[in-house]
From TrEMBL:
<protein>
    <submittedName>
        <fullName>Ornithine cyclodeaminase</fullName>
    </submittedName>
</protein>
<dbReference type="InterPro" id="IPR023401">
    <property type="entry name" value="ODC_N"/>
</dbReference>
<dbReference type="Pfam" id="PF02423">
    <property type="entry name" value="OCD_Mu_crystall"/>
</dbReference>
<dbReference type="InterPro" id="IPR036291">
    <property type="entry name" value="NAD(P)-bd_dom_sf"/>
</dbReference>
<dbReference type="InterPro" id="IPR003462">
    <property type="entry name" value="ODC_Mu_crystall"/>
</dbReference>
Amino acid sequence: MSLPLPGPMSLVPFVSVETMMRIVLEQGVERILVDLAAYIEEDFLRWEQFDKTPRVAAHSPEGVIELMPASDGRSYGFKYVNGHPRNIRTGRQTVTAFGVLADVETGYPVLLTEMTILTALRTAATSAVVAKHLAPKGAKVMAMIGNGAQSEFQCLAFKAICGIDTVRLYDIDGKATEKAARNLAGKGLTVVPCASAEQAIEGAQIITTCTADKQYATILGDNMVGSGVHINAIGGDCPGKTELHRDILARSEIFVEYPPQTRIEGEIQQLAPDHPVTEIWQVMAGKAPGRRDGTQITLFDSVGFATEDFSALRYLRDILASRQDLQMLDLLADPDDPRDLFGMIERYGKAVEAA
């Protein structure tokens, strides 16, 4: 006697790390970054339709574990993500993630996916699509300070979306810079390894900072930053963790995703709670100015927001629609009678005994 099979409504599409890598290779990294950026910008343009909340965070001395939910009233998405800088010492990722997209009408999940790779892609796509609105016109050179797991994605996103052709790399760990330079070889960029942060920003119109230490840090000092640059600060993303000297913030026009979250987690946690900032969706929608002139310092104080993950989940769902090789997980109970969950267990037990 065969055991009862999962009911048709018990199965949820699952994207494993292996499947995600296959998708990236099939689609191409730069194509995915461009397409993801379009989804992210589309959702920023309908910002007011979203049910938004700051992420729910559990902090410890070792790191942070967060849940990031968002809904547009039709779909609901959330991401589980951690940030543990010390993980690198034991061969683990600093950041790992998985996520779910669900149907609001039924509450049933329609997708369960790895999001470690997907988060790296969506973070880079967000950085570049924002820079499209804020960076100096004709910018070709970016300094990439912090050459960890995110760095190559950032460089390729700025190439594909903003048109940069040169990246100047620096990390306090020279092996990280060697890794990034090796991975970016042959990708259509001029790659310049640098010996210091000061050297990396020489001639750069865009400066991206992406470091992991959970502490107040000064990756960029005030005297390092001249007029007319765009700063893409993505490493500061929780209370007590920053990268920029406070005086840089005072000289910059600051753009953020969601102020209630950024004021707690971003670079602006160093400033007064009422310090003026501009929400980036308003710039995209033409409701607020972006870069006004060639001398202005623009700063994207990016901490990552749940709508960006929602966009990534929505993008992934759409490209998976035509695939026939998806793994399906028996994730949801699907009894013959929705009211008889107990009976389903009993019937399964009898089938096991009979088998």
